[in-house]
Amino acid sequence: MLIKTIASGTGDILALDPDPMLILWGFSHAETASSAATAEINIYHGKSSDGQMLTAPINFAADGYGYPSFFPQPISCPNGVYVERVSGETTVIIYYDYQ
After folding, report:
1. CATH top-level class for 2-98?
2. In angstroms, rounded to a whole number, what is the distance separating the alpha carbons of residues 59 and 68?
3. CA 55 to each of CA 34, 35, 51, 70, 97: distance values in angstroms, whole numbers, following the listed order
4. What is the pLDDT of residues 22-36, one digit of tens each?
5. Separation of alpha carbons 91 and 50, rounded Å
């Protein structure tokens, strides 16, 4: 399993480039603002927020965190993985591999 950390911030990002063999095992997330606040992110299959949303919107409480996973069956994501930071400041870690 491979890991990609998306540093604390507020901007959207193409987390993983498209690859026909890309699979997503899960991700972890944390609200990281210097003054605790709520946050929201969306995870998409694709190169932008025009892609298919992989999860329901993820809302964080102040200082909140979580570890959603797709075990035991990963999700195929040949079009890449995009993280939309809707609000707040977050760190996101993506757990992925190639088939």
Report:
1. mainly beta
2. 12
3. 27, 27, 12, 10, 19
4. 999 999 999 998 888
5. 22
